[in-house]
Input
Amino acid sequence: MEQINNYISQHKDRFISELIELLKLPSISADSAFSHDVLETAKMVQQSLINAGCDQTEICETKGYPVVYAEKMVDPNLPTILVYGHYDVQPPDPINLWDSPPFEPVIKKTELHPDGAIFARGACDDKGQMYMHVKAVEFMIKNNQLPCNVKFMIEGEEEVGSDSLADFLHDNKEKLSNDIILISDTGMIANDVPSITTGLRGLSYVEVEVTGPNRDLHSGIYGGAVPNPINVLAKMIASLHDNDHHITVPHFYDKVVVVSKAEREEMAKAPFNLEEYKKALDIGDVMGEKGFTTSERYSIRPTLDVNGIWGGYTGEGAKTVIASKAYAKISMRLVPHQDPDEITDLFSKHFESIAPKGVKVKVTPHHGGLPYVTNMDSIGYKAAAKAYETTFGRTPIPERTGGSIPIVALFEQVLGSKTILMGFGLDSDAIHSPNEHFGVWNYLKGIETIPYFYKYYTELYS
Ligand code: BES
Ligand code: MN
Ligand code: MN
Output
């Protein structure tokens, strides 16, 4: 296994240039104008798995974008690891805030990435992290070091809610059968503080529409006498939190698991510097639910956030108008044991109930997803921890993250498998934001660490 370091030194330029080629394709799943590029990306991922030495690969059609499947079976008596990742990316907007074009990758040094980082949409989320697995498996196959069976399932709709995936799992249970699922689509605390993600939040995402008068009106002739849907929407949204930043939707917290004091104390040991946090984001102060620390607020507590709000005149100059309609997109991050459908329902009922008589309200649910937590007693966690110890020289810290990967709970429900989340990105890598990047060091460290997970998992399994 020590050969991995030699293999990386020999091939790292190629590893980087291959990833750069993959990042040039704008596989934006949210925007149908890019559907051709999304499909081309699937083909490129398939080709990379063929080149890595997988002996069966396939582009599997779904209702939406296809899933790239590949496998290398060594021996049916050995364990099988299923690698999941996604080849689609977030839209790059706002494009004018990028220092270099989002689909023309460049390597630049940063304070946290002195060895350079690759700047491109998808560099960290998730093409770069997904591709670490392709390269790690390439190493193991080409050097006769693959200790168990491996399957890949790389999807193209994660950033839009993995809508086709539930059916895909149900229809392909046999093909996807595995002992453990391995994902690199989260982050770690710092390059010298490795961590393993032990929890993900769930998600309930809705869009709301408030309608006032049946047409846009002159704000002088009618202003002051009719409900202005934008004013009304702003007030309704403001009322969704109280002064302690608790969410006011009735029964919202009913099923929230209360994390024990002991566990919270354990979590508080993870390094976190509030001053640096504020400085990195250029905010005067943090803001959140009373009674919880910043790291608790973004991991073990649920949230309600407006993601977008629009209506009326937003062009250049001023237009005196009272709009007929106002809109907002709202996400709620959920924690165990909140149920996304139930929360969407509670939200809708509440939002309709607080609307003044003068307006009509419509709530449209978008995607949702269940939260997920794992324990540290599993052989999967132990193998991952040992792998980090080997390549980082430090025991990883278990960490619950605020982000969501809805497929993880589905994997458990449909395939009965647990997931290990080995993320190598940093929070500062700007995923979903302008200037997303992924450290070259992180990329290569991931490729180095993954084969050890295979080794230790197979050893612990038998
Ligand atoms: N890779 C992220 C999720 C993530 C990032 C988890 C960092 C933890 C740390 C994933 O691609 C993502 O963006 N998920 C979406 C949800 C999805 C349903 C659109 C999210 O969390 O907003
Ligand atoms: Mn992702
Ligand atoms: Mn994402």
Q: What stands out?
A: The first helix runs from residue 3 to 23. The CA atoms of residues 49 and 82 lie 14 Å apart. The pocket of manganese (II) ion (ligand 2) is lined by residues 86, 125-126, 158, 185 (CB under 6 Å).
